[in-house]
Amino acid sequence: MVDEIILKVAKRRMKEIETELPHPDIATHFSEDADGVGQIDLFFQGDLIGREFVETTTSWKEKGRMDEYRRVLQQKLRLVVMAPRADAMKVRMMMLELNNWWLFYYMVYGYDSQGRLVRVLRPIPPDKKQSYIT
Fold it and tell me: Is residue 128 part of a domain?
């Protein structure tokens, strides 16, 4: 069963995609995995061009999440990760660390209890050597 907030965020994001990519050959598909993570696949003329994840408060911390994101990037797909707003900057830092502060084609959003999305921009590199990947 789809968590209400995950579904709310996914619906809002799919509407944003319609605005960002207003083309008749763009289609989206929402699904949820066994752990409650929402996934939006983005298609252009039937070909997969992007994958977006709506993470829960715990799913983004799980072992293997970075591997999942890396696989999406290695396929040269657009990657979007949405996490609860309180965790979104940590997710962004993990993504940057994953790529040794190189930029790939991905975006990170934070969402609130109403499903509203706010883009998390690239932070200034920290002075300390704290690892965000566990």
Answer: no
CA distance to 66, 88, 99, per residue, from 125 (Å)? 19, 16, 13
For residue 129, being part of any structural domain is answered with no
Total domains in the fold of the chain: 1
CB–CB of 51/39 below 8 Å?
Answer: yes
Which range of residues forms the domain containing residue 92?
4-120
pLDDT tens digits in sequence order for the chain, 134 residues long: 458 999 999 999 999 999 999 899 999 999 999 888 999 999 999 999 999 999 999 999 998 898 899 899 889 899 999 999 999 999 988 888 776 655 567 899 999 999 999 999 877 665 555 555 55
CA torsion angle 89 120 97 104 (round to 10): 160
- CA–CA gap between residue 125 and residue 7 (Å, rounded): 33
Instruction: Identify whether 125 is part of a domain.
Output: no
